[in-house]
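F.,

This is the one I mentioned.
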């Protein structure tokens, strides 16, 4: 039986709020097919790794993943780097999200592995993140190069 966990529901109206959303989405898997720019919004579905949800069942560590929806409002322009929108089968690995304010514009940067990036020019920051259903168990946990180096040094 999968243990209950608290569903995530967050809103970002400033840089600090966006940082908390980024922490929840680190190592999320984002199918290009599930990214939509429509009118003044940009929506994507993310298969997020639940960093704060782990269980031990019969000496085995179980981690969890969950599908979440992420919505940005007040989007004026979307720029892509490192991939084409028509690569529908491709899945991007989300590493970080940050805000960059320039002279006359505000940009949300969604940074993915392998040099891919989505930049959203927004009139103002307003984003919503919400779990869409309960998480499911997985034995896999994302690892990063610095973790591999630490293991090798031991």
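My design for it:
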């Amino acid at each position: 039986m999968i243990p209950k966990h608290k569903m995530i529901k967050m809103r970002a109206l400033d840089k600090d709020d966006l940082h908390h959303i980024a922490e929840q989405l680190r190592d999320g898997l984002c199918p290009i097919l599930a990214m939509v720019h429509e009118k003044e919004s940009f929506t994507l579905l993310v298969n997020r790794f639940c960093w704060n949800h782990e269980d031990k069942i019969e000496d085995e560590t179980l981690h969890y993943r969950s599908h979440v929806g992420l919505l940005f409002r007040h989007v004026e322009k979307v720029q892509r780097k490192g991939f084409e929108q028509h690569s529908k089968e491709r899945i991007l690995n989300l590493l970080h999200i940050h805000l960059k304010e320039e002279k006359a514009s505000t940009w949300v940067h969604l940074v993915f592995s392998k040099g891919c990036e989505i930049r959203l020019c927004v009139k103002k920051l307003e984003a919503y993140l919400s779990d869409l259903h309960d998480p499911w168990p997985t034995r896999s946990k994302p690892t990063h190069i610095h973790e591999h180096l630490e293991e090798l040094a031991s």
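Helices lie at 15-25, 145-153.

Talk soon.
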